[in-house]
Amino acid sequence: MKQTQTDAKPVVISLIALVFLWALAAHLGNDPSILPGPAEVWHIAMGETRSGDLPEHFFATLRRVVLAFALAMGLGCVIGGIMGLSPRVNRWLSSWLIVLLNIPALVVIVLCYLWIGLNETAAITAVALNKTAMVAVSVREGVQALDPKLRDMAQVFGLSRGAMLRHVILPQLWPYLAGAMRNGVAIIWKIVLVVEFLGRSNGIGFQIHLYFQLFETGYVLAYALSFVAFMLLVEFALIGALERRATAWRRQSLAA
Fold this sequence. Notes:
Elements (H helix, E strand, L loop, with lengths): L1 H28 L8 H14 L1 H33 L1 H16 L2 H12 L3 H25 L3 H9 L4 H39 L4 H10 L3 H30 L1 H8 L1
């Protein structure tokens, strides 16, 4: 608990400093139509929350992010795991991953809308396809980096497959999975905004498009920062907690 509080202190201070710099820049600019201050954006966000508009569009975006993230992580882990275990499969599929990694997200979104239609299936598929290759690369590298000595030791001690996965494989894979998850959440929600901007009738991206046309900077910031705040919460409360738990063995070994 003390370690967690120590880790959280610089994060809180740095975020407060960022808000202070924002307030200072808004004060020096003295033009709320260009850069409104934190207080003004906060009042807008509260007003949109009371009207029900912000929660409605927030949860529409969150649903797309969760579905696309789950699909991308699932497919990416399977593909990356197979490629990491089989050099032959890796040779055949490596060029496919390079192609997918270099196709612009906008092209994938437009093609999915053209092929599937302007619907939720196309939106989620487009976002998941943009991230699956990145997850597969991370997992492939993690599987290839597994220490065979630890696997052999687990077999000597007669660990079951479940115990080996939990105590030997996953702790070694976690840095790669955590990186894929962090990058995945950050990239996926940004791509979801583009998807909503181009072809959806709700979501934060749709609202940003609306207020962009109206030149309402404060509303654009209010909707964008609402999801950024949620992503910070996910990072430090969920992913960070999982990472601390998964790497506890490493800290204990270093302390010993």
